[in-house]
Write a structure and sequence with these properties.
The relative contact order is 0.16. 32% of the residues lie in helices and 23% in strands. By secondary structure, it is of the alpha/beta class. Strands 6, 7, 8, 9, 10, 11 and 12 form a seven-stranded parallel sheet that branches. The two termini are 25 Å apart. Bound molecules: S-adenosylmethionine. S-adenosylmethionine binds next to loops.
């Protein structure tokens, strides 16, 4: 269960109606049942359910987080595609999502959409017992995102299709001491040439995800799976 840090008073947590509903009706827990509480900021406890509260027992120190911080910069796919990306990639250990609006993005997300994505990230983090809840940025235009990320010292990659000469992302994941990376994926119609050139100027290296073209919703999940396999150890 994910709590707000303000809900915690020493070893006790006052549970909200919604949290009690989740524990008692969805998980069917009874008073005295053990469950896991996390504050989304890296702290995880074993806890016992009481009437309207939880008692925190010992802190759990074994980490469920990856040793590599993955930021996905995703050109928003159409429909509810980004919801699926947030759900699966949160389970796989992604640290940050930057939803971007590119030239060929067809979606114009409402503020309610962003709230929904954040709710999905919380549910997925709970489900996979993550210690942190991934951060989801407000959607921004791709050029703005590139300018913002320019100052950040990390490995940056942009996934491009049909480019024989570029290396597979997996090759770059073999770098010793790799501890963070940003990977950008395009929408259904792909990136424009200008977007790829601008990204390269901003320090992104073009990479391949293999010879098959993946759907805009599949590509981020594939990337998160690759990184999680490498960052698990
Ligand atoms: N017709 C588009 C094209 O060729 O770019 C297809 C775009 S694909 C459905 C959506 C995005 O996923 C691409 O812009 C790219 O970022 C990423 N992608 C999918 N398959 C890929 C592959 N095999 N190699 C590199 N990137 C890939």
């Amino acid at each position: 269960l994910v709590i707000e840090p303000t809900q915690k008073q020493q070893e006790w947590v006052n549970l909200t109606e919604q949290q009690l509903h989740y524990l008692r009706r969805v998980l069917r827990l009874k008073n005295g049942a053990h469950f896991i509480v996390m504050d989304g900021q890296g702290n995880v406890w074993n806890a016992i359910l009481h009437e309207n509260s939880a008692q925190l027992l010992d802190i759990i120190t074994t980490s469920t987080e990856l040793s590599i911080k993955l930021t996905l910069m995703v050109a928003l796919p159409k429909g509810n595609g980004f919801e699926d990306i947030v759900r699966s990639c949160t389970e796989l250990g992604v640290n940050t999502f930057i939803p971007v609006i590119s030239e060929r993005t067809l979606l114009n997300p409402s503020p309610q959409k962003v709230e929904r994505w954040r709710k999905i990230a919380i549910e997925a983090a709970e489900q996979s017992e993550r210690e942190i809840i991934p951060q989801i940025f407000e959607p921004i235009n791709f050029p703005t995102a590139l300018t913002k990320i320019k100052e950040i010292e990390t490995n940056k990659y942009i996934c491009v299709t049909r480019r024989e000469e570029v290396n597979h992302l997996f090759i770059h994941l073999q770098k010793p001491l790799l501890n963070s990376l940003v990977v950008a994926t395009g929408p259904e119609g792909g990136w424009t040439n200008l977007e790829v050139q601008t990204a390269i100027k901003a320090g992104f290296e073009p990479v391949s995800l293999g010879r098959r073209i993946l759907r805009a919703v599949t590509a981020p999940v594939y990337i998160a799976s690759l990184v999680s396999a490498v960052g698990e150890t």
